[in-house]
Design a protein that fits this description.
Layout (H helix, E strand, L loop, with lengths): L5 E4 L3 E5 L5 E6 L2 E4 L4 E4 L3 H18 L6 E6 L2 E5 L2 E2 L2 E8 L3 H6 L6 E11 L8 E2 L1 H6 L5 H24 L2 E12 L5 E4 L7 E5 L13 H4 L5 H21 L1
Antiparallel strand pairs: 1-2, 2-3, 3-7, 4-5, 6-7, 8-12, 9-10, 9-12, 10-11, 12-13, 12-14
Helix pairs in contact: 1-6
Pathway: Purine metabolism; IMP biosynthesis via de novo pathway; 5-amino-1-(5-phospho-D-ribosyl)imidazole-4-carboxamide from 5-amino-1-(5-phospho-D-ribosyl)imidazole-4-carboxylate: step 1/2
GO molecular function: ATP binding; phosphoribosylaminoimidazolesuccinocarboxamide synthase activity
EC number: 6.3.2.6
């Protein structure tokens, strides 16, 4: 429990104010939701696992010159972050066809895309987070044309890093969701989290379509062993980070 005033509670995190105006405390929850919160549950230790994974990946991204809102992690389930105004967009990057892309296009699941696909969704639960064309995005003034271009380019840079990083972990990055925010200087920072909640991850060495799943699809599709899968991802991340640091 934080001693600071609560500012916001979302599906996966609670944000608190701190003594520093431009610093917030994110408390990662064990709550799990799917299908726009129509399915709800809890995953044991999910908050600690996702916070740890996100912290490690954010630090690796910072080393690559990609600025994030991450400051540090004072507790296993907590992350201190720079205060940003979230751009109301969910940015999805796809490398392999799965999920809604297959449902909406008829592409067979597992189809490797010729190049990464970047999609923008309106971050609005009331509307069901709809997929936006770039013209609709600009019509709604969710971001400026320059911000959209910057976010698009950053998403591709993050994807390039993550594909290689997850490969080091023996994991195939199928697709993932990013969020971005504007700091006090109106500069764009990578925000939110990068974890099995926001990435679709397949165990590279596993061919069974159910056993290979190492992400929140295990919860969405009632595949079981959700905590074990998340924990396995964390262990592989820590090993990859340690290996990279020793190089």
């Amino acid at each position: 429990m934080s001693v600071y005033p609560q500012l916001y509670e979302g599906k996966a995190k609670i944000l608190y104010a701190t003594d520093e105006p431009e610093v917030l405390l994110a408390d990662f929850k064990d709550d799990a939701t799917a299908f726009n919160a129509q399915k709800r549950g809890s995953i044991t230790n999910k908050g600690k696992i996702n916070c740890s994974i996100s912290s490690q990946i954010f630090q690796q991204l910072e080393k690559k010159g990609i600025r994030t809102h991450y400051i540090d992690s004072p507790q296993p389930h907590q992350m201190r972050v720079k205060s940003v105004k979230i751009v109301p967009l969910e940015v999805v990057v796809r490398n392999i066809a799965a999920g809604s892309l297959c449902q909406q296009t008829g592409l067979p699941i597992g189809t490797v895309l010729k190049q990464p696909l970047v999609e923008f969704y309106y971050k609005n639960d009331g509307l069901g987070d709809p997929l936006l064309t770039r013209d609709r995005l600009l019509l709604l003034e969710l971001a400026t044309p320059e911000q959209v271009e910057t976010i698009h380019n950053l998403a591709l840079q993050v994807n390039e890093f993550l594909r290689e990083f997850w490969q080091q972990c023996g994991i195939t990055l199928v697709d993932f969701k990013l969020e971005f925010g504007l700091d006090s200087k109106q500069e764009i920072l990578l925000a939110d989290e990068i974890s099995p909640d926001t990435c679709r991850l397949w165990n590279t060495g596993e061919t069974d379509p159910n056993l290979r799943v190492m992400d929140k699809d295990r919860f969405r599709r009632d595949l079981g062993n959700v905590e074990n899968a998340y924990q396995e991802v964390l262990q592989r991340v820590l090993k990859a980070v340690e290996t990279n640091n020793l190089k």
